[in-house]
Amino acid sequence: MRLRDGIAVTGTDFGGVLLDQRAGTYWQLNETGTVVLTALADGHGPDVAVERLLDAFDIDRDRAEADVAALTRQLIDAKMATP
Q: What is the number of domains present in the chain?
């Protein structure tokens, strides 16, 4: 997945924010979403994002995989990212 041009990512005390500079809209991300987004935006695949979630949080693999898939799908559907 790749964030499209014009999307800015900023960390916050509670996770992160994605700003669509063209449309002026933003998404707030919790800590889990920020871990996933950081891995994917750095060019890693979903498998690395899952491993980072497992390292950072007390969740099982099925949940981590579902969270990565859901966030990826939402970002693509919102046209903030491309596959």
A: 1
